[in-house]
């Protein structure tokens, strides 16, 4: 017979319960902002009692932390493409395409805009997501530096300016694809590849 | 002797007064959002009494409308570069550089993020700024279509996809340059030109 569950085990939400709460929270945060959305709204959206929700997540901060963790895991998954086949531009575009596809959901896309807004205001939430971006940027920087070492991009390429431009393009596309729902992701892929190649000055290498 | 001022003339703020109120409102909106900022906060920021402020702008909506009008005038001024010398890419980049320079002010940059956020949420404020963007987009579309007619860009260039990409890049740069204060605008200009040329497929024309 298995031992009875410990308190910690009892309080751990099942994967399904956790997914349900975080999905509801994303909707509420996207709609009303991290500050504007209340735990009460999240309960209503998740169709749970406050008692049940607080048992899983003791505060809004705990929910935000869990969403940041989901985003981190998503970013790591996207960056698997950096180890795939093809040129450095192909691999960066594959990474970006997966990110854009996951961000195109109207709810989570709205949340991305909230995250940008928090980052600009330099809030605690903003800082949490800036850390995540630093991780993504460092991984991409390593991949491009390796490509530079192999002569795939020019030796004098300024990695930091190139990365700033690539991230700017990623932010902008992520946001704009929320508005322009009729633009197919596949339609932008060749343009994205042209832009990344231009920013990495691959025709000069 | 001039006739006495009419009521309408008395209520019209002087240019300096107007500038002062709108600058204060931009700071408050950037800090707390269009919904979050109150007329009281705008008064405090402008160092004016509510009575004085309400005499000039009867509502927050009237202030937002005046800011939208300032943005429209700014956009028209930037687009003067589309009639300047150089290739279509040079002219688009000159337009973008003036926009980016004006948006780099920390306060108005923050406001731009609020505007994006409103547009995503499809609010009345968002719709007002979408109209402005439609105007800018139509003007740029005409300029690129003329360049296409002259053979400067390929005949099969999809103007709408190219414009979506250019606007995405503009949005993203505008936002990112708020965070990355140490990146000089002049440093990004050559990259911007490479990207616009790539998006317009000018090397194929």
Characterize the structure shown:
Chains A, B: Keywords: DNA-binding, Transcription, Transcription regulation. Chains A, B: InterPro entries: Homeodomain-like_sf, HTH-type_TetR-like_transc_reg, HTH_TetR, Tet_transcr_reg_TetR-rel_C_sf, TetR_C. Chains A, B: Pfam families: TetR_C_11, TetR_N. Chains A, B: GO terms for molecular function: DNA-binding transcription factor activity; transcription cis-regulatory region binding. Chains A, B: It comes from Aureimonas phyllosphaerae. Two copies of one chain form a homodimer. Chain A is mostly helical and 205 residues long. The first copy, chain A, has a domain at 65-204: Orthogonal Bundle (Tetracycline Repressor, domain 2). Chain A is built from ten helices and no strands. Chain A has helices at 7-11, 15-36, 39-46, 50-56, 60-79, 88-103, 106-120, 124-149, 159-179, 185-199. Chain A starts with 6 loop residues before the first helix and ends in a 6-residue tail after the last helix. The model of chain A has no long low-confidence stretch (mean pLDDT 87). At the A-B interface, helix 7, helix 9 and helix 10 of A face helix 7, helix 9 and helix 10 of B.
Show the helix and strand layout.
The structure is a homodimer of 205-residue chains.
Chain A: H1 7-11, H2 15-36, H3 39-46, H4 50-56, H5 60-79, H6 88-103, H7 106-120, H8 124-149, H9 159-179, H10 185-199
């Amino acid at each position: 017979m298995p031992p009875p569950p410990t308190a910690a085990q009892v309080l751990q939400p099942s994967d399904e319960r956790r997914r349900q709460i975080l999905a509801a929270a994303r909707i509420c945060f996207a709609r009303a902002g991290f500050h504007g959305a209340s735990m009460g709204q999240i309960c209503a959206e998740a169709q749970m009692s406050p008692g049940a929700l607080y048992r899983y997540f003791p505060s809004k901060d705990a929910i935000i932390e869990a969403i940041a963790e989901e985003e981190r895991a998503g970013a790591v998954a996207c960056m698997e493409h950096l180890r795939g086949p093809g040129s450095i531009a192909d691999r960066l575009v594959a990474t970006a395409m997966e990110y854009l596809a996951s961000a195109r959901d109207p709810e989570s896309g709205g949340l991305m805009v909230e995250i940008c807004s928090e980052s600009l205001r330099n809030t605690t939430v903003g800082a949490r997501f800036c850390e995540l971006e630093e991780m993504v940027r460092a991984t991409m920087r390593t991949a491009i530096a390796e490509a530079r070492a192999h002569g795939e991009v020019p030796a004098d390429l300024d990695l930091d300016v190139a990365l700033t431009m690539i991230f700017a393009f990623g932010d902008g596309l992520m946001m704009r694809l929320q508005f322009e729902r009729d633009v197919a992701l596949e339609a932008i892929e060749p343009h994205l590849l042209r832009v990344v190649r231009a920013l990495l000055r691959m025709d000069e290498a």
